[in-house]
């Protein structure tokens, strides 16, 4: 990874005494919705604090070129290394990355998710599915005493580096379309829904989203990818995602 990092819309410092995960967490359907959990046609893709392209000097947007690969990083928070603690969950879920150059401040979740496809454009001709991947990237971990964490700490040792600390964050590596210009808005969607079971016959919908923007500058970069082994894992992409991965 090279160049300065960028952030999601409306990012706030985790170092603030008043910080809470709920300040940036967007859960669909919300826990306080009456009746069976379900996504409504009116549900928004972005949290209210992320409905516009709001950034700060400390938390700027990412800058890149068309054709560049970008790493979207996130913490697993035990949803990978401590998954057995939630036996109703069979996997850590899937990540969907959508891109558009024509975002809407009132973008509806269902207008995008499973509607925009990986072809030239989505069904409403505004955006496309850029990538899908498992929430578990195969190497990330939170430092704890779980079997998965201990195994990955051994396989993927790393130095303490801020802001990850001793943990190794998960990532999904996405290539910006060569044809993109101006600003590319990214919708990050995590499907962590619970499948049907005897205890939960109808399953339970559970989605989390984040919204961010990438300022595109300069000429497109159309290059072939070759992975350099032995990099500092704190700043390296993931080979299986970069070489032929969708």
Automatic annotation (TrEMBL):
InterPro entries found in the cross-reference section: DUF7492 (IPR055915)
Residue ranges constituting the DUF7492 domain according to the UniProt record: 1-236
One protein family per Pfam: DUF7492
Protein's name in the database: DUF7492 domain-containing protein
Source species taxonomy: Eukaryota, Fungi, Dikarya, Ascomycota, Pezizomycotina
